[in-house]
Write a structure and sequence with these properties.
This protein is α/β, with parallel strands linked by helices. Helix content is 31%, strand content 17%. Helix 1 packs across helix 2. Bound molecules: 2-amino-2-deoxy-6-O-phosphono-alpha-D-glucopyranose. 2-amino-2-deoxy-6-O-phosphono-alpha-D-glucopyranose (GLP) binds next to helix 5.
Length: 243
């Protein structure tokens, strides 16, 4: 794993945003895997600025998102559908028909998961997957104990994840308890992965990710099995990592 240590969130966003924009410029038809959460917001902001000032075009880019809550209407500001439109898609020249997010309101959720996998395969797989990390080591919404062989599926959220994500909602009770999430095997099939982390709250998770054992009890440790992972993290997030 390649580790890029940055001093602050702004530098993290610039580093990640420039890496992604550079890949888009060299491969205009790239398939990007995108993440939600607070961490990638600055990266998306950088990509929007770069699109406006340098003209990097997303007109032929396709995107697949990692996950979506079950039971939130698309119009709910906390749905990942709304999040992606607001923080990125509405501000770049992407064809929104080429942006894919699991449908957390599908009448047949199992079929939706299977279709999502089919969609990724039809796109030729994910070229570059952006990831964040949960304090408990979750990637996408794959909570501890998820099989490394998992594919897109309906997953329950842990108490810890619900508490962590409650900050985006008006109350904890409003946080959905289930989601559709790309599986760990799906994520591992991406050709390249960039994982972002900031702040002290992620320090323990980052030390387990980098120095810990590969175990399904800590989902992000699966990334140790991938040959092209870049971690971009600030000093606080890397403060417990052994050199
Ligand atoms: N499903 C998302 C994850 O993909 C994300 O990595 C995590 C961390 O979020 P944050 O960046 O806000 O710490 O939050 C959510 O649970």
């Amino acid at each position: 794993m390649k580790i890029i240590k940055v001093t602050n969130e702004l530098e993290l966003s610039k580093t990640a945003g420039e890496m992604i924009a550079g890949k888009v410029r060299s491969n205009p038809e790239i398939v990007l895997g995108l993440a939600t959460g607070g961490t990638p917001v600055g990266t998306y902001k950088y990509m929007i600025e770069d699109h406006k000032t340098n003209g990097t075009s997303y007109s032929k880019v396709s995107t697949v998102n990692l996950d979506e809550y079950i039971g939130l209407q698309k119009s709910n500001p906390n749905s990942y559908y709304s999040f992606m439109k607001e923080t990125l898609f509405d501000h770049i020249d992407i064809n929104q028909e080429n942006t894919f997010i699991p449908d957390g309101n599908a009448s047949d959720l199992e079929a939706e998961c299977a279709n999502y996998e089919k969609r990724i395969a039809e796109l030729g797989g994910v070229d570059l997957q952006l990831l964040g990390i949960g304090r408990n080591g979750h990637i996408a919404f794959n909570e501890p104990g998820t099989s490394f062989d998992s594919r897109t599926q309906v997953v329950p959220l842990t108490k810890e994840t619900i508490e962590d994500n409650a900050r985006f909602f008006s109350s904890r009770e409003e946080v959905p308890t289930k989601a559709i999430s790309m599986g760990i095997q799906t994520i591992l099939e991406s050709k390249e992965i960039i994982l972002l982390a900031t702040g002290k709250s992620k320090a323990d998770a980052m030390s387990k990710l980098i120095n810990g054992e590969v175990t399904e009890d800590f989902p992000a440790s699966a990334l140790q099995k991938h040959s092209n992972v870049t971690i971009i993290a600030d000093e606080e997030a890397l403060s417990l990592v052994k050199e």
